[in-house]
Amino acid sequence: MKRFGSTALSLLFAVQLGLPAAAAEAPTLEAGTRMYLALDENVSSARGGSDVGSIVRCRVWRDVESGGVVFVKGGTPATCRIDKVSRRNMGGTEGKVSVGGVETRSVDGQSLMLSGGYNKEGSGRKAVVWTVGLLLFWPALFVPGGNAELPPGTVFDVSTVNDLRLAGASNVSAPMKVDLRGMANGLSAEFMMDDFIQQPKHDTFRIKVSKDGQLPAPLVIDNVNGKPIELISLAVKDVTSKDGEATGVAEVSAKVLAKHFVRGINRFEVSYRDGSERLATEVVMDVQM
Q1: Rounded to whole angstroms, how far apart are CA atoms 240 and 208?
Q2: Which of 104, 163, 183, 190 has the highest count of CB atoms within 10 angstroms of its CB?
Q3: ∠ CA(126), CA(57), CA(259), 5° rounding?
Q4: Strand, coil or helix: 7
Q5: How far apart are CA 109 and CA 246, in angstroms?
Q6: SS3 at position 9
Q7: pTM of the predicted model as reported, rounded to 2 decimal places
């Protein structure tokens, strides 16, 4: 049985009862924290389309949390900007476009500056973006000689530029938010990025799955980017058990799953049935397609 000190117990009861934690410091979101934005309008490299410097409407894709505190609510409007546009030409060179995050607002109205964005130079993952696209030959990325089109809903990641400290007694005394969604069924899943990059043919997505007790069977993918799809079965291998938790590696063909992907960052749900009830956990593929 886990033992808690008096401070931890006090905080636990404060969270459960919605009471303020005594002598709490103002919550701080550190600079460099990653978050996700989603476009609210179409961006195109076509002539007459988006121009460098143009402001693009976007929104925060999901809550930005740290230490159980929400600093930016999902759905909060954000500002993005077109940083680079390459038009297609007669020689068959494809169009390209780069969208950068600029600013959004915290829950208490403070300005939060952003850096990085879709296909941004210096983001640290551009090599992964292009390698994945070329090796899997996804037609949804860029058609040779065509325009780059980023439709509304395209998700990409950015980073915070400055530290954000929530100000005001109302924020400090507010009960902390504790996310218990992952405890609902005990199943967790994580895309094994390093494994995929190191594969010679890049033809298999592997997902590390864990659950208290035993891993359920069968595990399937039935939802991609919030849309139901025909069931894709997962082959689970290398199952081990330690301290009452079972862990395994679920495999799926990269091309079978990738045909459901869109540009930007994708997500899918690994699910199973418990009687008539569907239980699932979400996996965010931290790669900009």
Answers
A1: 12
A2: 104
A3: 50
A4: helix
A5: 44
A6: helix
A7: 0.58
